[in-house]
Every structure is written in structure tokens, then in C-alpha cells.
Amino acid sequence: MNNVESSNPVATEDAISVHDFSEKILEQVVHFHVMKMKGGFFLWVGTTPNLSNLAVAMSSKYDATPLSTLLLGDPSDTTPNSLSQRLARKTKKQVFVSYSLPTTEANLTLLVENRIKKEMEQFPEKF
After folding, report:
1. pTM
2. What would you report as the CA-atom Rg of the chain, rounded to the nearest whole angstrom?
């Protein structure tokens, strides 16, 4: 009689879940932090715990390209906006992205995005 059932299954669906993973990319360890929420997720990417920017994107019925805006950070750095748009298009969810890596290395951004997509394929329930 050790069966435990949730008396409120809706509460479980509405709960925020956390998923962390790391990968060595171009000689540096990059950390990924995902907080899944109802209808979307927050993704932080960086090497040190720093929230230097934050963008949000979501799909629109009026345009194929998801709408996005920068909520925090340097407006000349378009990486968080671009990444949030691509992830919103892929998942059809609202996506918050904080990208705290140097944007001087174009290959790094591509490799980071590929690593995120790989994680999404392996663990779709985490996003």
C-alpha cells in the first residue's frame, strides 16, 4: 500500500520544473538552466552565474516569425532575441532567453544552439 497518487493533477502540470545540463564547447564549459512553466520556458545559457540580458519571444497568429523583445540588457546584442525567436518557432511556446556568453565567436552561438536542440530532442518534456 505504498502507492502515492496526487490528489490534484493540475497542480503538477502548473508547477515549475528545473533542468540543468552542461557541455564543453570550444574549450569552455557552458551551463544551461531550463525552467519549464505552463505554456513556455526560461532558458539561461552562460559560463558564470550572471543574468546580463533577457529576451522573450512568442508565436503570433498574424506572422510566421515569432514576436520578440529584449526585456533586460544591451539592445545592440541581438543574440538573446534571435535565439528566443528560433526556439519559440520550434516549440510554439513562449520562450524567455538569457544568453550570457561572448558573442564575438559566431561558431560558439551556433554550437550552443545545436546543443540546446539536441537536449530538446532527448528530453522534450523538460522544455
Report:
1. 0.86
2. 16
